[in-house]
Specification:
CATH superfamily: NAD(P)-binding Rossmann-like Domain
CATH architecture: 3-Layer(aba) Sandwich
Number of domains: 1
Strand content: 5-15%
Number of strands: 7
Oligomer: single chain
Largest sheet: 7 strands, parallel
Radius of gyration: 18 Å
Distance between the termini: 43 Å
Shape: globular
Length: 262
């Protein structure tokens, strides 16, 4: 019932975790407001929600790299639904490659989407949440933001940035009724790896450890309007992140060669 009549903006809502979050929000009585780049996919998700849950799920075509269009989109949303109660910053992508082979265009795009777009969306919705003194901002980061691994230097850097931003934001909003949560999943079975791992080698190496998008989405939706600081999935991988902080040299020599080989 906590999501009844709540307006929940989800970026990257056209597939993967974002799509599953939208279905779960609708199932629990909330209004998913969908944002992504692909109009066809957004339309499909919105239609499915209408058919299954009898809830109107408005969608907006937006590439969060286009920072100048974020405020305009948020204004369209608030004009239509009144206000925004929850923002789930889920849009993001990665490309795995050794540093000497990194495409600088990919590097720039990863920071623009994963970091700048996330910050832009957050900055745009905060005034509405402060005005009503109510809200929840959920930023999807990654275990890669806690433990670096070979061939994911840029992607890890973007997720380190997301975690730093999220932790600072939580402290800034500490005296308000706006909650801030980071989500740090390990590898998930989604279209993410179509771009990140074109060779398929990494997916083969970690196939048995991969999380289902429905499971991750469920954990995120369950955390809405709670004071949960972080969602770390799976727990054993987060334990590895803690060990990495305590024993970095040991972890780089072992995990870097075995578990995280790409």
């Amino acid at each position: 019932m906590k999501l009844q009549w709540k307006n929940i903006v989800i970026t990257g809502a056209s597939s993967g975790i974002g799509e599953e979050i939208a279905y779960l929000v609708a199932k629990k009585g909330g209004t998913p407001i969908l944002i992504a780049r692909s109009e066809d996919r957004l339309k499909r998700v919105s239609s499915t929600i209408k058919e299954k849950y009898h809830i109107d799920s408005p969608y907006y075509v937006l590439d969060v790299q286009q920072l100048e269009k974020i405020d305009e989109t948020i204004q369209h949303i608030t004009n239509k639904v009144g206000t925004i109660h929850v923002l789930i910053n889920n849009a993001g992508f990665g490309v795995f490659d050794a540093v000497e082979n990194i495409n600088l265009h990919d590097m720039k795009s990863m920071f623009e989407v994963n970091v700048c777009g996330l910050i832009g969306m957050t900055k745009s919705v905060i005034p509405f949440m402060l005005q009503q003194n109510e809200g929840h901002i959920i930023n999807v980061a990654s275990q890669a933001g806690k433990i670096a691994s070979p061939k994911s230097s840029v992607y890890s850097a973007t997720k380190h940035a997301v975690l730093g931003f999220t932790n600072s934001l939580r402290m800034e909003l500490n005296m308000t009724n706006i909650h801030v949560t980071s989500v740090n999943p390990g590898p998930i079975r989604t279209r993410f790896f179509d771009t990140a791992d074109k060779s398929g080698n990494y997916v083969k190496n970690v196939q048995r450890y991969m999380l289902d998008s429905e499971y991750v989405a469920g954990k995120i939706v369950d955390a809405i309007y709670t004071q949960k600081r972080e969602i770390n999935l799976p727990k054993w991988m987060n334990a590895g992140s803690v060990l990495f902080q305590l024993f970095p040299s040991f972890m780089e020599k072992t995990a870097g060669k075995v578990v995280f080989k790409k």
